[in-house]
Amino acid sequence: MLKSRDRFETAVRVPHPRPRPTSPPAPRPSRHGALVFVYGTLRSGAAQHARLAGATLLDHGFVRGRLYAPGADPGAVLGGPARDRIAGEVFRLRRPVRDLAALDAYEGLVPEGEYRRVRCSVATRHLGRIRAWIYVYDRSVAGLAIIPGGVFSRGLAPAGPAGRARA
Asked: What is the pTM (predicted TM-score) of this model?
């Protein structure tokens, strides 16, 4: 039988504090797998689409931002007014580590490179809002032409192996 003092001690017991994590938790994988949003010559039917061999087209969509023409390569810059959109496609990568490494090499990801890979929110036609990788332009856009409507024209892609357009 508990005495009143025992009941009081039981009621006010403070649990041991939980240890705080030393690093943020790992991101949960998407229910759709590793996804990449492409807006340039990696799109279906475009000059460099073969680089996505084995990837599955999941949906069409857009991200908020502007598409610039820093040369033959389109460059996406995320953010800005809601009316600014970049059209593209979302692909599920079959071998995410290998496929992203190959795309990183193609995009020239180096510390001082023109592009960097980031995760962003993509509004899609059928899947709703999802998170996917995108290659964004990482230079000043001062003086660059804006690609109207955020839709990269396949006709702007340079011919031959010397030129290559980006994501």
From this structure: 0.73
